[in-house]
Amino acid sequence: MAIVAGLVASFAFPAFAQDATAPMPAHAQPKSYGEGWECDRGYRREADKCLAVIVPENAFATNRTYGTGWECLHGFQEVDDAACIKVVVPDGGYLDPSGKSWSCLRGYTEIEDLCAEVVLPSNAYLSDEVYGSDWLCDRGYEVKGDTCAAIAVPENAFLNEKTHGQPWTCARGYFESNAQCETIAVPENAFLDDASYGSGWTCERGFAASGDGCTVIDLPDNAHLDRSGTRWECHDNFQRSQGRCVLNE
Question: Which of 10, 13, 184, 200 is the most buried (most CB within 10 A)?
Fold first, then answer.
């Protein structure tokens, strides 16, 4: 039984058995903790040997026991884990802080391996957006193909700050109709309101909207105007019934 257990252990843990019996190769030293050995600085392990790290031109040794053992100098990039070639920065570009690639300067856009100057149309300025267009239109203009066309603002309107949708808003006292700003007809006993919906006017307190006008509210006995001032409600201890206020029973 002990023989069988020994055979099983030898197949299950071949690496540990090899480490325990294999002699320490050249350019190696015992591990500072645990069992086994590790390669000296400037060497890396491959199977049971320590091979010298060959640092290519324009690279430096990392003195790490993993990986290639070297990295490219700033301004060079690794190729096929074997060499370091210089990063070629095109005109209108700059070397990234990583030192391994490049980006285009403001006012230039990347096209394949080049930085092409951004062509600004009239009434436009350079955009700082990471994605999207390289330029934006000045206030009062909108994108039309590759140009910036003046926004047609109708009479009694002004430019708004919206980036999408209608670029203008009707002035107070006017409402939009067929791309124009028409005058809001405020009836007698009413005033302009600033709501973005509805008729654009509200009846004075004591009056209620009726069609295109405001009619006086006829208060029944034992009633008073509510908070809005355009409706009525019964006094306490009275309830509404058929347009009147009747005493609660």
Answer: 200
**Are both 36 and 67 inside the same structural domain?**
yes
What confidence tens digit (pLDDT) does each residue in 118-156 have?
999 999 999 988 778 899 999 999 999 999 999 999 999
Specify if 129 maps to a domain: yes
Is 170 buried (19+), middle (13-18) or exposed (0-12) by CB count in 10 A? buried
Q: Which of 165, 183, 201 is the last residue of a domain?
A: 183
Whether 137 and 111 map to the same domain: the answer is: no
Q: How far apart are CA 15 and CA 64, in angstroms?
A: 22
Q: Rounded to whole angstroms, how far apart are CA atoms 139 and 127?
A: 13
Q: Is residue 54 part of a domain?
A: yes
Residue owning tokens 């190729």: 79
> Which domain covers residue 169, as residue numbers?
152-183
Q: Which residues, 6 or more positions from 139, have their beta carbon under 8 angstroms from its beta carbon?
A: 159
170-205 pLDDT, tens per residue? 999 999 999 999 999 999 999 999 887 888 999 999
Instruction: Name every residue whose Cβ is closer than 8 Å to that of residue 100 and which is 6 or more positions away in sequence.
Output: 72, 76, 77, 78, 87
Q: What radius of gyration, in Å, describes the C-alpha atoms of the chain?
A: 42
Q: Above 80 in pLDDT, residue 22?
A: no
Q: Quick one: 126 and 174 in the same domain? A: no
pLDDT given at position 5: 42
Could you tell me which residue, 42 or 227, shows the higher pLDDT?
A: 227
Same domain, 76 and 55: yes
Residues 53, 78: Cα–Cα separation, whole Å: 16
